[in-house]
Each structure stands twice: as C-alpha cells, then as structure tokens.
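Hey everyone, long-time lurker, first post.

I ran two proteins through the pipeline my lab uses and got sequence/structure pairs for each. Pasting them in order. The first:
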Amino acid sequence: MKKSTTKRSLLVSVLALVMCVTMLVGTTFAWFTDSASTSVSRIEAGRLNVSLQMKDNDDKWVSAEGKTLQFLVEGKIPAEGTQILWEPGCTYELPKLRIVNEGNLALKYKVVISGIQGDAELNKVIEWTMDSDVLGTDVPLAVGQSKEFTIKGHMLDEASNHYQGMTIDGISITVYAKQDTVESDSKDNWYDKDAVYATAGASVKVDGNKVVNEVVMVSHEEQENGGAIAKVTVPAGAAVNEDTTNLELKITETNTPAHITIPATSNHKTLEVKMEGLSADNTELIKVEMFVGKRLDNFTMLHNGNEMNKKTYSGAVSEDQDYFYSYSNGMVTFLTSTFSPFTCLYNKANWSGSTAADYATPVDETNKVVTIASAEELALLAKQVNAGTSYKGYTVKLANDIDLGSRLWTPIGKSGKAFQGVFDGNGKTISNLLINNSNLCDAGLFGLTTNGEIKNVTVKNASVKGYLDVGVVAGTPYTSKYTNITVCGDVYVNGYAYVGGVFGKNAYANLTDITVDVNEGSYVRARSDAYRTYVGGVVGFMGEGNQIVSTVKSNIDVFGSTCDVGGITGIAHYGNQFINCVCTGNVTLENAGDAGDHLEIGGIAGVWHDETGQKVTFTGCSFTGKLSTALNGVDKTADLNDGYYQITGRKYGSGTGTLLIDDVAVTNH
C-alpha cells in the first residue's frame, strides 16, 4: 500500500442493491416495477425472471434480496457496521455476485454505480470496476444461464489532501435487465424490445425522520441520447418513514382517472409516481425530471386530476405543482411534496406530418397503377391530391390493411382539388380513422371525389367530426361511384348538417353494396339548430337525378336536431331509386322547431323530394328499428301514424311528383 502522510476516511455504511427490468416501447412507455418494499432485488415482469445472488462466508450462493452488502475484510464479509478506512491506492471488493436468468426470455443486463450519498465529489477519485465486464455495458445472458462478477472500488493514487475528511454514506449498485432480441415471434425478433420498466433507488442518511443530505436518484439511461428516463432530487429535510434507510422511486404507467375528460384530439398518459420510504407528512418539495416524449404539442400536465402550473422555462419551476415541459428533449420537470397519478395530455399526431417520401412500389406509369402498402403512403396520397394531383385515369390500389392509429387524418381531396381516380381497396381494411374539426367541410377518409370510383374497402373504427358534408368514407362523394363499401366497429359521426354514416352531401352517382355494421353505441348525429339537418345512416343528402342506391344495410343509430332524418338518407331526391335497402338502427328527430318538421323522419329517408313530373322509388326496402320525434320539446312520435314513415317521412316541396313504394303510388304523404 502506498504511504501517505494523511489517511482519508471513507465510510461506506450502506450498499443498496436495486434491480429493474427495462424494455423500451417506441414513443409509448409502459413502466413496471417490482412490488417489494425494500430495495428491489428481484423482478418478474411478463416472462422475464431475473434473480440476484451473493456468496456468503460459507461459499454458498444465497439471495441478495434486500441485503446490505459490506466490503470484504481479509476475504470475509465483516460484521454489520464495520467501518472501513480508505487511503490512496487501496482497493476493496464486495462479495461475489451473480445474476441468474430464471425466465424463458434471453436478456441483456448492465451494472451501474449510482445513488452516491454524502460527498459525491469524493467518488471522483474512486474507480469502480467489475472483473468480468465493463460497468455500464450490456451483457447477454441466455435462458437458464448465470453470470458471476465482482465489483471493486479503488482509490486513485493521486487523491490529494483536498478529499480529507470526506465521507460517502451510501452507494447504490443498480442492475438493469432487458430482453435480448434473440427471441422471435411469428413476425420477427423485436416483438418485445420496446417494453420499459424503470426504477431508481438510493440509501439515505437520516436524523430522526428527516433526510440529512440531498439525495439524487437517477434511473436507467434509456433514451436514445443516453439521458436518463427519470431523475429525482430529494432535498435535505424531507420527511421519511420510521427506520427508513433507503428511498425508492417507482414509476408505472396506469389508467387515467375516470373523472378526467380527454378531448378527442388529445392523447393521454398517466404515470403513477411513487417514492417508497417518503412520509405521507412530507412538506419539502421534491424535484422530479422524467422523459415523457419529444415534440408533444399542446402539452398539459395534471396531478391527481388537477391541472398543474405550466412554466415557460425550467428555472421558473419554483413552487409546488409548477412544471416545465421541454419540447426538444421530451423531459418534464416538476416540483411536488406528494405523489399520486400524474397525467400528461398532448395533441394526437397528424398524418399530414408523417407522410412517406415516396411509394415503396414505384408508380406503374404504363398501366397507371399506384400501390399503397402503409399508412404513411396513404397519407402521401392525401398530400398529393390536396396539392393538386387528381390521379385522373389512375387506379390506386391497397396492398395491405392499414391502421391509422387514431392519429388525426386530413381527408383525401378538397374543394377545387378532388380525387378523380379509381381507388380499389382490394378487400383490405383501413382502421382507426380520426377527424376532429368542427369547422371542416368535406370531412371523411375522402374529402371530395369526382368522376371516379371508390370500391372494395372496409373502414373499421372511425370518429369523424366536421361541420358540413361529413361522412366516414367521403364527405362529398359527388360524381364518383361507390361500390362494395363497409363501415364497421366503433363509429361516431358528428356534424352540423349534411351528415351520413358513410357519405355526407351530394351523391350524384350510384351507391352499390354498402354495409354499415357497427357496434352498439355507435351513432350518426347532426345538430343544425334552425337550419335543415339532412342526416342519414348512410348518406346525409342524395343528389338530384337518376342515382340508384342498392343493396344497402345499416344498423347505426341516427340522430338529427331539426328535420330530414332518415335511417339510410336524410333526403331522397327526385329521380332517386332505393332498391333493397334495409335499416335496423333507431332513428330520432330530437326537437323540431316548426309544426310539420317533426314529420320529416323515416326509416329509410327523412323526406322525399316532390318535383313535378319526377318520381322517387323505394323497392324491397324495410325498417325494423324505432322512430322517435319531438316538436318544441314535446314527444310527437304518435303522429307518425301511418306505415309509410317506416320508409320515408313527408314530402319536401310543393310539386306533383310521384312516390312509389314497391311499385305502388302513394298519395297524401
């Protein structure tokens, strides 16, 4: 041992072993921790099962769970509380440790020295090493295997008198484990690489029930930039429970409290943040920094359902419930004396900002075919059409099912820039469509289409909110044909007027083989105040002329505020033919304002357009739902007293046109 004129005393009284199992989930974090109340030494999560063991003085492997480890003295574990004096050039080691993979998933682990308590500066001249691997690097461990290692601390020879009298009162050795990507499911070997588990722990020096020195706990460095997911600073004076020698941070993703209203345009994430060992009577402010995701627009944070105080920079976070969110690095910093669920609200991403750069399958210019295989490519189509590329003469064909992931959707086509090609869904399904803009016209998967055809596609799960011309598949189908279209799942359609379960306004081409088969609770709703409503389970407003609507089934409930409320269409215009249309959903005219308007409700059509010399035809159509209507707040359902309302409401207009129901001319309706 190198001589020194002055010996330095380094008292290591506590070594808390903390283990957490960590897997990263893209931009969504699922945080899980062990339920042990002591320093975590065993975690079981999913099919990961990792144990930490140590060799005792009898050379036997025993559990290291919750143990306080002592540096060896003459090769043996000394009695608890033994003080060890350090001087420059000396080296001490802990008992031999091993990690055992007792689960059925291959894993990688790494060992990190963290949670320095006391004079952290002294740690600058202590060199920590692990005999078998490099500290802080990933080490693979197959199923059923174990890995032994020894951790040593060496005081550097050049440690000067500056460090005399300094002590370290606690050190945490953190072992992080995550699944190794050698396991495979039916797709690939990355199926579980992104699930996250995170925790941090540290020993504390306590006087009475108060923390003596500031405690900093840092969780696993999991971000792409190498930064920690979470960091917590516990100030001196913080109150802890009786006999507490360790504090442990646990962050777990949990359900958002039921009393919090989540806007349709917002994503939400609730994190249960716990500090085990902290007293419920603590009043000192604890600083928490945790990663929640970068570039989250309109970020808002709530604590136990109550909105916290948003600050514009981190230095302004000074009082209880203050927080600052960094858009660039994704960290939220806040102060709190108590812990319970913290909820983050932020805008859902918009597909317009996530388009593909190009189509993976090059456009076949010879046959004029565009192949779409992903949501990003579908968003690219919307971007191109809305910029003026009509795709007239082209066929756009889906190669795969597409999940829009409930991110905000910009419709394909708009006023002046319609989609004019053929869109062949190829029997594929587009799921989780979200549009939420109460000022938007032409709202749907497609906004505006002309002189083309949309066919062979299913839209599953849709929430569409707009102003005028609103429908799941097309806000304004106009002169394009629609064939073999299905809308299913959970479907919610809201608008002011010209609203339908599939199409909004102005269908001037045939609609064939249209199915609306939705889950209970789905609906179409238009609330137009004193304006004409035009709402239907399939189409809000049929165009005038000889359009044929055939082989249509709908079970969605329809609600309209004022008039023109139908199970299939709000209005059957002159010249229209409805063949084999079946509605089983309920139809409700909520509150007509003018006498007679409450009769503009029907099982198939809300009204039929009476135009001299023209006819409206219904053949093989039926309604088995329930009709309800009201006038100025009074239920008037009894006024729907003839069977024709099962097909259509009263006539609209003052001409001498003809209403034909199964080839029978109907008068006075």
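...and the second, right after it:
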Amino acid sequence: MKLALCYFDTAVSRMFVEKTDEKGEKTVVLSSPHNFVYRDEILAKIINVEDPVDAELQIDKGYSFHVVEKNPNLKAGEGVYYDQFSSTYKASGYGFVILDRVTQKVRLITPVQISKDKVRAYFVTFPTKFMKLPLYSDIEHTLQEKKILAIMDKEAIEEQLSKIDLGEPRVNRVMVARGREPVTGYDEYFVPLVKLEKKAGKVLEDGRIDFKEIDSIIEIKRGQEILRKIPAVKPEDGMDIYGEKVDAAFVVKEGYNKGEHIVESMGDSSIFVSDIDGCLNVEGKKISVSPFAIIKGNVDYDSGNIDFNGSVHVLGSVLPGFSVKAKGDIIVDKNVDDAYLEAEGDVTVKHGISGKGSMKIVAGGRVRSKYILNSTVEAVKEIEVEDSIINSKVFSNDRISVTARNGKIIGGEIIARHEIVVNVAGVPKENLTKLTVGESLFVERELIEIRREIDSVKLVVQEIMRKIKASFGEGLFEDPKKFLSILPPVKKKNCLLMLQELTAHNKELGEINKKRVEVEAKLKLSVIRWSS
C-alpha cells in the first residue's frame, strides 16, 4: 500500500485564520504551529506499507508530528522540491507549508506581509520543529525574488531577530523593508484652548437642575489664551518598497480659523490670545472674540439666561421666564415677554415689552420700545415709547415720552423726574392712570434705605440704654461723674464701656440723620401729580 507521510498539518490552507472566543470577539490566530519549516526540511515522503499503522515505523528522526495521506499523488509546488534519492519533498527555503487539495501540490507560502500603501514589508516568523528561524540571507533572498528594493540594513533586521525568544514560541513580525512614507499635507489651523460646550444646566442645592443656567456666553478676558496654532504642512510624495512613487494626500483638518480680536501672544508664537475683554463667538469654523454678545435667535432653553460683562444683542425675542443681564447695552430685535432685563447701559426693544406680572426692565441708561404693556420699567435716563404705555409702572429719572401722534398712556403709574410727554393720558371708565413729574424714585429709595438704617441704629441705642438702666439704675444719668466716682472699680469699668458704646452709636445716628436731611433736600423740587 502506497501512502504519503506528511510532517505538517495538511488540513490547513492559510497561515492565519479568524476565530471567535466565548465573548463573541473575533481574533486572527496562527492556523497551525506545525507548518513553519526551514530550508531542506522534509515535508512529506511516499512510503510502501502493508498496513497504515506501520507508517509510524518510517517516521524520520526528530519529526514528532505527522499526518498520513492515503492518496499519495503529491506534487512539488512553489518553494518545494522533490528529492529522488530519498523520495521526499523538501522545503527550498523558510516558509509556511500547505497542501493544495485541488492540485495536490505541496507548496510554501512566503511569510511576507506588505502594508496596504506598500511602504512597509514584514517577515512573519515562528520557530520550526527544529527551533530554527530565518537568517538575514534567507530574508534578503526572499525579498529580492519579490523584486522588493527598499530592504532594511542587515543590522536592523538581525537586531529584531535576536530579540525573539525561542523558549516561548510565538508569531513575530519583523520589519524587513521600508520605503519613504508620504507626508500628508494640510493648511494651517487652530485648536481651541477654551471649552466650547455649553453646560446641561446648573445643579441647585436641593439637587434639582436649573436648565436655564447653561453658561452659553463664554466670557473672555484680555490676554486670555484662546487658540493654539498648528502650522501648515507641505505634502511630500513618498516611495514604496518597490521604488515606485507614493502620492501624498492633502487633507482638511477638523480645526478652526482665527477671527477678530485674536492675536499672537508675546511669549509663544503658537499661542493666540484675546486683545479685548469680550465673549467668544463661534461661526462655523471661525472663532473670534466680540466686544458684545450676539444671541442668534431667542433667549430660551437653547441659550439659557444671559449674564455678560458687556453689551448683548438678541436677534430674536426674550421668552417668558428668562433673563438678560449686561454691563453694557441690551438690544432685542423682536419682543420681550414676561422676562427680566437689566443693563448698566441702554435697553432697546425694537418691537414691544409685555408681561403677565413678572415683566421688568432696569436700565442705567435709556429705554426704547414700540410699546409697554403690563410691565415695570425703570431707567436712569429717558424712556422713549413709540405707541403706548398700558397698565404699567414706568419710572425715569429724566423724562418719559410717547412719540406717536396718537400715542397714549392708559392705566398704571408713570413717574418722571423732569417731564412726561404724551398726547392722550387716561381714558374714562378705564383703570386709573397716575402721572407724576418731579419725583425721583432713586432718591425715594435712598431715603427709605436711610430711614431703615436710622431705625436699626435706634434699636441698638435703646438696647444699650436698657442694659445701663438695668445694671446701674436711673441715677447714673442725673449726675454721671458723681455716680461713677462711688462705683467699685470693676463696675466702673463696665459702666464706662457701655457709655462709650452708647456715645459711638449716638454719633453714628447723628451722621445718618445729617445724610437724611441732605437727601430730603433733593426732594424739594416741585412735584406735579395728575390722575385720570
């Protein structure tokens, strides 16, 4: 009986196979540890035996693994030669041996892996059954046969081979050829050094989240670092391991462009800083710093409440329940509805101001609007309304004017320091309309605060007086010097301390009263009141 005795695993047809572990994860592993062979190593031989069991008696020394093939029509394929003297098939070099079932050829797979861009080549190694690895000369010969030109230096390859531990057989990849990597080009771009993301909301003390507080305005200080510059890179073609040109790519980086008011820093040319106080403005891929904040839409849950150390321009409306605070001016292109606006400068609402009980505007400058309805508006300077003021409380420390020919004030309370100008004021059988000229709400508030302070100090004086009378009686105030002279030293000391405290608070009370008189003098302007 003629058989083929094979010293490799004939069941495999590839060097590597994909396996799935218990977790369902796929990995690529070596298909067989028995198929790596070295030059002149016996791969298979034809034998004649009466019983297949007798095949084991003809196994060559040192060959522990074997497979018996009952169809011995083997042929020598690539990398394999037939030795007629010993009737064996042998390897002509280092590689991974397989049996091609279609052609019945025993052939070697050259263990060379080439990168997709053909710029690098690797030689896959695994110790043979005789613990052999390829030599540099074997690798060089294989690469030359494949017409690979960019072979690495002998020292570099041999250094990698020397680090392979034969005591722990495993697959290794040795880099054996390397061309010149192409350099990918791109234009100059910038990466932000400040966070661009809005917060989801502000966590309150009780654990709830205020979704109106999302810090959508990113305040910037002059000199603050904003961007880091990534210099442009010129594309350079490379060369693959065959000596062919590898075209360089040009990509568009996911970065930003530099906008207004961002300049190069003094100490580092790659760092760019703001040259003004303002807020960060991101338009597409351009980052700039603006001296005023622009809300591109409504003030709502998307923008959150606005609090900015400058001027604010809202391109939409301010929706109910939201607030806008600015150290500069506030401009609203549409409406303000049941919201809160506070500006140290002017407030301009191009459409109207209306509320349902919570609408309030406080301005350190002027207020301008088309109409005011069911709202509270206070301004240090002029309040100018085009059409009407209806059922509102409006105060100006300067003047209030309704400019339209049929402009009217109906209901509410209107107070101006200097004058009120309107064509129609009040309507019979409607809500009471109160107009007052010559009164300063700010002075009134200052006076209220002073009176509150006077009452507070008076309470302290009364308490000190109560303690003194309780401790020393009424006689102290009839003749203080005589009374103190007969007191024991300790009581005398305590009494003096109380009297000093009383004197200090009475002095404070006198100074506050003096201030009250000065403020009250400001109110001695003629006040004109009118109601309808």
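Reply from user beta_strand_b:
Welcome! Quick read of the second one: The radius of gyration is 47 Å. Helices lie at 136-145, 154-162, 441-472, 480-485, 489-522.
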